[in-house]
């Protein structure tokens, strides 16, 4: 695990953009494609905008396939739909073609949406191991990541796949990658900034013993890949080391 701590959000985001481009270039050189899983919420929006503007000419974006790591059970046009944020901030600005984007079909019931999304991912990998080149993750101030929320049933899943999960605290369903699917990735990167995340981050990184049912981000531990935390000093302020 690598912890990278930055004094400013600007430094953090630009370094993370460089990190993404380096992994993408390596994947494209090796296999002529880059399988890239985006995270939702507001935290990555500025990162996506940097990639689609300042970094636009640094990569052959036509070789990139985009996925969404988790989705809210709202219509595709809803302002809270993670896919819509990604569409506006990176996919449309880069003119990514439709067959290189994998959205969750939330017009379906949550369980069916998860099943169909998993099928689409499996078809894309065409029998190859379901190991994404890079999965981006955020972390909530309750320690959740993707839609792996404290106390939810998906935390106990052993399936390498996508599942629907009911989140009591939000009174709604979500569709999410399971921890075993995330942990198969070649590279996983957390983007965490802000003082509000400091307490949860300390528990996630330094908690002993681990309590993933309380701080689900502790479940993220790649089998054979790298894990990097991109943090600002506000989020990292309570860490001992």
From TrEMBL:
According to the UniProt entry, what is the EC number of this protein?
Answer: 3.1.1.31
The Glucosamine/galactosamine-6-phosphate isomerase domain is annotated at 8-229
Kindly state a single biological-process term from the GO annotations of this entry. Answer: carbohydrate metabolic process
A Pfam match is Glucosamine_iso
Task: Tell me which InterPro entries the record gives.
Answer: 6-phosphogluconolactonase_DevB (IPR005900), 6PGL (IPR039104), Glc/Gal-6P_isomerase (IPR006148), NagB/RpiA_transferase-like (IPR037171)
Q: What class of enzyme is it?
A: hydrolase
According to its UniProt entry, what is the function of this protein?
Answer: Hydrolysis of 6-phosphogluconolactone to 6-phosphogluconate.
PANTHER family, sorted? 6-PHOSPHOGLUCONOLACTONASE
Its recorded name reads 6-phosphogluconolactonase
């Amino acid at each position: 695990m690598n912890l990278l701590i930055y004094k400013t959000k600007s430094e953090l985001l630009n370094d993370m953009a460089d990190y993404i481009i380096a992994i993408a270039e390596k994947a494209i050189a090796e296999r002529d494609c880059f399988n890239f899983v985006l995270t939702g919420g507001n935290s990555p929006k500025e990162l996506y905008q940097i990639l689609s503007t300042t970094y636009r000419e640094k990569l052959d974006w036509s070789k990139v396939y985009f996925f969404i790591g988790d989705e809210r059970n709202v219509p595709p046009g809803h302002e809270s739909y993670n896919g819509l944020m990604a569409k506006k901030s990176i996919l449309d600005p880069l003119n990514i073609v439709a067959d290189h984007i994998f959205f969750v079909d939330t017009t379906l019931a949550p369980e069916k949406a998860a099943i169909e999304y998993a099928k689409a991912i499996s078809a894309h990998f065409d029998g190859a191991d379901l190991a994404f080149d890079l999965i981006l993750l955020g972390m909530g101030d309750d320690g959740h990541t993707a839609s792996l929320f404290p106390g939810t049933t998906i935390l106990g899943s052993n399936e390498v796949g996508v599942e629907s999960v009911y989140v009591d605290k939000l009174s709604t369903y979500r569709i999410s990658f399971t921890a075993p699917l995330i942990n198969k990735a070649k590279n996983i990167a957390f983007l965490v900034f802000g003082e509000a995340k400091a307490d949860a981050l300390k528990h996630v990184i330094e908690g002993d013993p681990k309590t993933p049912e309380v701080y689900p981000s502790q479940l993220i531990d790649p089998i054979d890949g790298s894990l990097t935390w991109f943090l600002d000093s506000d989020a990292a302020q309570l860490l001992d080391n």
